[in-house]
Amino acid sequence: MDRLILHEDPRSGNCYKIRLTAALLGLPLERRFYDIMKGETRTPQFIEQVNANGRIPVLQVGDRFLPESNAACWYLAEGGPLIPADRFDRADMLRWMFFEQYSHEPNIATLRHWLRYVGEANLSEAQRGQIMAKRAGGEAALQLMDEHLGGRDWLVGHDVTLADIALYAYTHVCEAGGFRLRDYQAVCRWLDRIAGLPGYVPMD
Amino acid sequence: MDRLILHEDPRSGNCYKIRLTAALLGLPLERRFYDIMKGETRTPQFIEQVNANGRIPVLQVGDRFLPESNAACWYLAEGGPLIPADRFDRADMLRWMFFEQYSHEPNIATLRHWLRYVGEANLSEAQRGQIMAKRAGGEAALQLMDEHLGGRDWLVGHDVTLADIALYAYTHVCEAGGFRLRDYQAVCRWLDRIAGLPGYVPMD
What we know:
Two copies of one chain form a homodimer. Chain A has eight helices and four strands. In chain A, 51% of the residues lie in helices and 8% in strands. Chain A is an alpha+beta fold. Chain A binds chain B through residues 52-53, 61, 64, 66-72, 74-75, 78, 87-88, 90-92, 94-95, 97-99, 101-103, 105-106, 125-126, 129-130, 132-133, 144, 147-148, and chain B through 52-53, 61, 64, 66-72, 74-75, 78, 87-88, 90-92, 94-95, 97-99, 101-103, 105-106, 125-126, 129-130, 132-133, 144, 147-148.
């Protein structure tokens, strides 16, 4: 495989997904650090050379750049044990990864970012007006995961997949966004299961 | 392949993606209709039997149910010409599909839904407070696509892929959300290219 470089902010769960995927697969990954709070991913140089969308993470593969955390995880994992061999299960894994980006991350990761890093006092009126909806959306996402995990060990099939990694990233730190993990007991057991995987690395 | 049934609201671009993918591939697809404005995807029966997340589209494959539009497109297209053969390109296609669900759909599809179906006068204060941010986010997404498509025919590689289909769905009806397609000339040419594909079907 080409040389792999992760352009990241270590506080970002989206970046951590890629690092965890690489660690579980035993793939070497170089790291380049940016501070999103200082706008380091919005500089002309970053926009021009790394990601026109001005966001991290970006996985650099040789001289090509791949934005979007879940696409980067897919790239690393293709052909390996973190992607199910069954066609329906493979699509179902992607289902949970799209759920993560649409129904989980914009609620749970955004509240964590606002409350932990920006600070409630510094939020705009428009942001403040969204807190209740994001709280409800995040709780609904955690509830859905909890019910699904009630009778099973992993989100898809009978083994860990990228779906688990993608949803682990912001779920395991959701309390920084004001969510209560103890309300979701099946989720808690699943978090422990992931943290016990051989090769697991914690978030910085 | 198992019998394929699309659970959908025909006004939804997310549902249309799946129908367009099936049409381009020549796959037969039965259709079941729900009216999201009447809450028909939030009934106990729908939650229990079709999708615990209370959303359409859901692709039914035999007796299994697959939510999330882009995962359903992947299921239909796997092994066929709408997914690139190259490993990096395949991940790059997923990159645009995650971009669609994170940076495009929540801005462009949501404004279309609010302005065309809900009606501006019926929006809540919290929704009204998000219009400017969603306008800016949608314009940024269209601008990014326009620059990317400036020197190429398709989003990824040298042929149409699921990335084009996913982003076509809400882009080609974005004016209902108050966006101006004439500001994005490369996008307009790309929309024409998709509408000219053999097997193309329009949105209902």
